[in-house]
## 1
Amino acid sequence: MRLHDHADRYLFSWSANIGHLLFYLRRPALDDLPGLAVSAKETFASASDNPCGEITIRLHDVREAAELAAWLFTKLRQD
């Protein structure tokens, strides 16, 4: 699943895997929101850099997904 903004930039995505959901913070989101990558790594133990310079966050259950959504919506409102 890909999420694009009004300018059709590819900001976020996720992929379903066996046992977890992998959420991606894509480059346009990281470029637009300074500190987003650092905050993700400080907030989520599973956050890591991928070879494309994006942040991935591995989610294992509904609680983790809800925490990610709450965190991300807070960050988006700060902009």
Note: The chain has a mean pLDDT of 90.
## 2
Amino acid sequence: MALGVAGTASADPQVIELPEDAWAQRTYLGASYGTSRWDVGFQNGLSTHPDTQAKKVWLGHDLRFAALELGWTSLGQVIQQGPGGLEGRLLSRGIGIDVLFKLPLGSVEPIVKVGRLWARTEQKGPLFATRLESYSTQDVQFGLGLNLKLGTHTMLRAEYGRYSMGNELGLGGVNAYTVGAAFRF
């Protein structure tokens, strides 16, 4: 964008080039998919299947050595089977806010992520005699990852995330491994 400024000693306007909007190209939208593993306390007589799918969608704003992200996370479900074929499921999803610290090394950026997850975990199925239907938690999350920039508008991300899920159902946490892409606009 050019801006004309009239000088006091000369009638000729000077042209000053202003940089592009400082906020442009720093906002990005991304999504990732992977696997999660729940730390489920094992109980006698139950068959537990703690491996499941993890999905994430995030909106972020990039700074030089940090970024701020707001996202939705689905940590999938755990299926437990008991005697007589009774089955129960734990499902968890939530909204989180994270601060990412990064080390820009050209097109590669190692990241460290810390934040807070407001999660809703539901307990479903006839296996659970306590019938605790759902509970909400506000837990800490952290992660490590790597961003790979593919030009000015696209990046790929591989990430490990650890989500603390509280002690309400004997869950120590969830480990999520995801890969995804983000697009700047």
Note: The two ends are 19 Å apart (CA to CA).
## 3
Amino acid sequence: MKYMIIVMSLLFVMACTNSEEKKNVDSRTYKVYAKDRGDQSWILYVPIYMDDTKFYSKSRTEYKLDHDKDLPKLSKIVCDELQTIRGALPFQDYFKQYAGYVDNGRIYVYVNLFSYYQVNKECTPELPRTIIFLTDGDYNWGCMIIDYEAGKVVKYKFNE
């Protein structure tokens, strides 16, 4: 009798979490791809992570980037670096978020790269104002740290 109750309970739980319900959740969102939107680069003036953690801290203070002056230079550095990374997507296939900061007296730029983001179908696909992380185990998300004064990438990581 105990086994019958356990089996019935499991069947009930499985019925409540069937794949049809998962399909409905997935069908309410869609992906917006960078390669379909043209060059999408922007400076995050008040960068925060998706969990509302602030990007700047006591050891990492803000450095204001200028869109017209800094973005072309930074974009070239990122584009050149992507061409050397095996498996990385082309420059135009990424959204790029830039945030300048000072750490131990040196100016750095954090560059967040992601190839798509999820949007609820009822919403207009606005550009994200938070630092986006994708954990799909591919080159769809990565980040770079640029030494601003040296004009070169000092560190990069992809969630390959």
Note: Residues 1-25 have pLDDT under 50 and may be disordered.
## 4
Amino acid sequence: MKTFSLLLLLALISCGPVKIKDFNDDYTQELVGSVETITIQKHEYKFLKKDTINLVTTSFLNYDKGNKLISEKHQTANGSRETFFKYQEDLLIQKQIISKNDTSSIVYKYDKERNVTEEIATNKNGIYNVKTVVFDKYHNPIELHNQFKEKIKQSVFIDYDYKRKSFLSKSVLDTIATLEIVTKNDFNKRGFITKRQRIASSSNAKYYSYEFDKKGNLTSKIYHKGDGTIIEIITFKNTYDKVGNIISRERYLVNKMIDKTTYHITYY
């Protein structure tokens, strides 16, 4: 009977609402071990230009013994930018960005549940953006509002259907005219977005689907027509060190490498 109760509890937990993973460029796993520094180099392979290779960015990242990022420096052909991170009780409270022409700062505020509810960005001319976020009881954002200095407003409203593992995201941009974009997103039991489709007047809208490995790394990004026909496939290949961290990440389009990112990691 105890075994049955335990299995039922585990089933309920596994089927419950999850924290949706934020999606920017691609998903990669959390760091393993006690990392001190990472030097990241990203190369692009222009196979349309006789396979020329370009070093796009070099980044230098420094961590404390708890794997919190302390500082990072990004270098490109156009210059460099350095960022410093300040924490309080393990929460990021300030980020300072220094470049050749400007110094800016972002201050973060939290609610009692440790959700970031406000971000205030300033530069030498004062406040240039204020972002506020409202969360549901599962720590997922349901409203995001950006107020830019130039009176540009952006709002995002998110409606979750946890039972069906999907959510609708409506983005409203208010400039000279109002632009509204609605997307439908599906996610898996770990909170990773597996499908993203813009809701258009046509019911045959194109969409992206995403696949992941057991560590939570994005392995493929597939572009489909509305009927499911594949238009384009982007795949990723990772190489790991002995600790289990990624030291090389390659991206392919039609089985041709289009960029490669290497990670030189030192540990405490």
Note: Residues 3 and 245 are 36 Å apart (CA to CA).
